[in-house]
């Protein structure tokens, strides 16, 4: 694909808790790091996201009595999948992977910091209305296309891709720069939804 100064790379949640040994480890999640680092110099606009949860966040199963991780609970904004406690503010688990070139980041979007609502997408909280401010930033930078990388394909990457497409961006997901959790077919479902929304898929070597 052709890259222009109107294309931004959006690096999603490459944090210790999503890498091997972390509280919510994605299989081979750390393998995205060298791929992303190779991609970053090709982009004039680089945005990273960071899960940034308070310890009492309502998406944590531990904050709901006997609820088990990966069970669901009805919230005012819809059905919430309950997670193991992860990416808690000011902990090592919330830090970016040590080998990720974060010096390239021009903006870091911290999401999921409101205790009563989760946030997968880089653009909106899970109520689909509360904005993170990213869309306004990209608009001011003149961005009209987005390349996505990071963790995890079937949750935060996928939701960010869908919102970006809905907002009118041309969206490309770099498959070898992402990894998935894949809970009960969630990866296949996410890919289907992204393709239906017009998201393109590519390999890092095509950039």
Automatic annotation (TrEMBL):
Transmembrane stretches, start-end: none
Signal peptide: none
Entry GO MF terms: nicotinamidase activity
One Pfam entry name: Isochorismatase
Pathway: Cofactor biosynthesis; nicotinate biosynthesis; nicotinate from nicotinamide: step 1/1
Enzyme Commission number, as recorded: 3.5.1.19
Gene3D superfamilies: Isochorismatase-like
Keywords: Hydrolase, Metal-binding, Pyridine nucleotide biosynthesis
UniProt cross-references to SUPFAM superfamilies, sorted A to Z: Isochorismatase-like hydrolases
Root EC class: hydrolase
Listed InterPro entries: Isochorismatase-like_dom, Isochorismatase-like_sf, Isochorismatase_Nicotinamidase
Residues covered by the Isochorismatase-like domain: 7-204
Chaperone listed as a keyword: no
Xref: CDD domains: nicotinamidase (cd01011)
Similarity comment: family membership: Belongs to the isochorismatase family.
Protein name (database record): nicotinamidase
Organism: Banduia mediterranea
């Amino acid at each position: 694909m052709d890259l222009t100064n109107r294309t931004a790379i959006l690096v999603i949640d490459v944090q210790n808790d999503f890498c091997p040994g972390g509280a919510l480890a994605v299989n081979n999640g750390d393998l995205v790091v060298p791929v992303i680092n190779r991609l970053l110099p090709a982009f004039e606009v680089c945005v990273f996201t960071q899960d940034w949860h308070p310890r009492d966040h309502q998406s944590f199963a531990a904050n709901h009595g006997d609820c088990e991780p990966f069970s669901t609970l009805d919230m005012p904004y819809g059905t919430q999948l309950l997670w193991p406690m992860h990416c808690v503010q000011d902990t090592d688990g919330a830090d970016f992977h040590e080998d990720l070139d974060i010096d390239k980041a021009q903006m870091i979007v911290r999401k999921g910091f409101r205790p009563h609502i989760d946030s997968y997408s880089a653009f909106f909280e899970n109520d689909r209305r509360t904005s993170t401010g990213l869309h306004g930033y990209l608009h001011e930078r003149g961005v009209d296309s987005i390349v996505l990388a990071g963790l995890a394909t079937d949750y935060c990457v996928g939701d960010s891709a869908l919102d970006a497409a809905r907002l009118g961006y041309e969206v490309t997901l770099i498959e070898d720069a992402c990894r998935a959790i894949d809970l009960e077919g969630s990866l296949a479902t996410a890919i289907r939804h992204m393709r239906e929304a017009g998201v393109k898929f590519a390999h890092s070597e095509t950039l």
